[in-house]
Amino acid sequence: MLSKTEILAPAGNMDAVRAAVNGHADAVYLGGSLFSARAFAGNFDEKELLETIDYCHTFDVKVYMAVNTLLKNDEIKRLPDYLEPFYREGVDGIIVQDMGVAGAISGCFPDLPLHGSTQLSVSSEYGAAFLKSIGMTRFVPSRELSLDEIRSIKSKIDIEVETFVHGAMCYCYSGRCLMSSYAGGRSGNRGRCAQPCRKRYQLEDQRAYMLSLKDMCMLSDIGRLIDAGIDSFKIEGRMKKPEYVAATSYVYSELRDEYLSGCKNLSRQAAKYENMLRDIYNRGGFCSGYYFTGNGRQMMADDRPNHTGVKVGKVSEIQKPYINIKLSTDVHPGDIIEIRGRQGDVELTCGAEGSAGKSVRLKGKLFQNIAVGSQVYRTRNNALLNDIQKNIIERDRKVQLKADVRAKIGEKMSLSLSLGSMKVYAEGSECIAALNKPVTESQIIEKIRKTGGTQFEITDVTSDIDEGIFAQISAINNLRRQSLEDMKDLLINCKKRNPRDARNTEDIYRNVSERKKWSDRHPGITVLASTAEHVNIIKNYKWVSNVIVDYNIKQYGGELKEQGFKVFIALPEVLRQRKLKTYSDMTAAINEFDGVMIRNMDELGYITENGYSGPVIADAGLYVYNDIACDFYREHTEDVSFVASQELTLDEIKNLSVEPALKIYGHQKVMVTANCISSNYKHGCADKKMDGTGDVLRLTDDIGNVFYVRNYCSDCYNVIYNGVPTSLLDEGDELNDIMDDCYIEFTIENADMVKNIMDHIGKNILGQELPDGRDTVKNPVKDYTRGHYYKGID
């Protein structure tokens, strides 16, 4: 474990790396040219990343590399060759989401630390224990967890915990979001999120940025987070500017050090720093994330989805072409200010210095949007940014060394440099007795201290120098330069790993002689029921072989089994630490069914720890994108089958070493969220009255895309569904080839819709008699999408 809480800074390019290092971050996380969850950040090519690793290691700053996207079969085969140079150079850890990626890296580079990404949405001790059991040394829990939950996990599982403390927050549990993928064709799981949570949505008569959360800032509570045992404080922002990286790194490291040095009252300093960071970037102000609150509208930035700025005053007088602004805080030349107008914002550049309590006069524009009393905000504090540039970014960090110089007549001058236990030693030319002008001890020490433009600073010099000695100044300088180069090489090389031949993923692929088919384990059609209404309809169709019932309607499982169905129980979308006592009987409940559907890493950990050995269905949210991921799940569950990922094409699915169940109908889950649309924008908390059975809310974005929201109150989460179902029900004869391996998912459908779909499948696709004896039935699905089955994603 770390000796003190790590400050982990984001870096989208080399300028940001320098900002983080000079801001005294302990580590940076970044992405290379491939497989990173921030595809639109600057990122690093191979040469830049190798240089970055060396640069950071000079200052004992760690480098964690994000390979936290989902990889397809053709991509994962390139992974070892891609990572090999960074492995050799000494990269300190790899951040992963894809279990296939984790398996490939563990197989090829077994001594390379793996960190579980927040994209895994691990929310309980079971998920944490499972990640540790497969060799991960650190994980980032779901942002939605409270501090009490994090503390509880940390106390039970001996694994490093890294949590976000500052920056933007996703509305959805990370890794569970397909909204960008379905609404815009850009997958967040592939690093190309289009940020649909920053768009405006309509709910009945309300229109707001209903999915846009405020930025997080935990400066005021940094002591509580340290005391909870969190190992690493992560700052969000790989696409942010160097000034943001420098400032956040600096203030979090300053307060961390103050607290660890014994200063427990940091409120005044935290407030000062928070105001500074708000002036750099904030979205609707700051909040404390989910550390101390479960959800709520106070967390939302629903008026504006981007930088809010800070309020600096209001319009006091309009004298065209000028505007007078009464200031509540100082402004500076070059500041960008916005007048929040009646029909839009008016952006102006401040051309004068102005003090709080006084007025500043600016030349205006778009006067139709401005009125006396209009609020004025600053969105760029030019003086602050210049100060950060000068006093943090350009003030290069120095490595402080101790020196021991020895100059004895008749011996070679020697210099030893040390940094903790690391030492270098160099010798120069032989010292002789001076004939007239000897070199003094102070002159030699002065030359030794001159580290110039290097990364080093010699703070302590011990010496053993004869009087009356002669030594050339150039020789002393050369000795110092050589010693500093040797120390730099030592700091870099001590992190490098021994070269090894690149290993291809073929070494870790299993030889799959026969494609594993879903129908080998679960022959026949499989249907998921989410409500009692669904169960009452599905039970009338005997061509259904397997029924999956949601956990909240598990009481209907026995009835279905009595009628001859093979019945699985689907565990909740989220298994949180604070809810584990609620699920104390979950093992007993699972054992009453023919099998279990798991939906997240926590549930995989749960069934593993509790020794479950029955049939397991891995839901699509566990993302089997590649064959190594298939093998991973088969290693950890005795009898596992899969629902096909909803971001793969039919051809990509066919090329997997397993044949998963193909969803031929269902509204795709695009978000699982801790915040509640109903509570925030409708009638307040439903007080656990809508556990997957209440009214479905309808959201519409500005271009007409529709999404439906359902509450699961007992577990306190929402599921947001795509407005049109994914459907292959009109594929005709082509469906015959996949009907034995197909999956139908009913979630938000009403009883009539479920009956009509079941009738259509039974009569028109399977040729079965209808329960009510009708001769004909039409396909009831009029509006639908093919999902990614044909077009796919990048």
Give the low-pLDDT segments. Answer: none
Number of structurally distinct domains: 4
Given the structure, what is the number of helices? 23
Instruction: Work out the radius of gyration.
Output: 31 Å
Class from secondary-structure proportions:
alpha/beta
Total beta strand runs? 39
Helix content: 25-40%
**Main β-sheet, spatial strand arrangement:** 31-30-29-28-27-26-39-33-38
> Which architecture of the largest domain would the CATH scheme give at its second level?
Alpha-Beta Barrel
CATH-defined topology of the largest domain = TIM Barrel
Between the first and last Cα atoms, what is the distance in angstroms? 38 Å
The major β-sheet equals: 9 strands, mixed
Overall mean pLDDT: 93
CATH class of the largest domain: Alpha Beta
Protein name: U32 family peptidase
Organism: Coprococcus eutactus
What is the topology?
Elements (H helix, E strand, L loop, with lengths): L5 E5 L3 H9 L4 E5 L14 H13 L3 E6 L5 H4 L2 H11 L3 E4 L2 H10 L5 E3 L8 H9 L4 E2 L7 H10 L3 E8 L11 H6 L16 E3 L2 E3 L6 E3 L4 H6 L4 E4 L6 H19 L6 H14 L5 E2 L22 E10 L2 E6 L8 E5 L4 E5 L9 E5 L11 E6 L1 H12 L5 E9 L4 E8 L2 E9 L1 E2 L7 H9 L6 E10 L3 E2 L2 H21 L22 E2 H4 L3 E5 L2 H7 L5 E7 L6 H6 L3 E5 L15 H6 L3 E4 L2 H9 L6 E3 L8 H10 L3 E3 L7 H5 L3 E2 L2 E5 L2 E5 L3 H5 L15 E5 L4 E7 L4 E6 L3 E2 L14 E4 L5 H15 L29
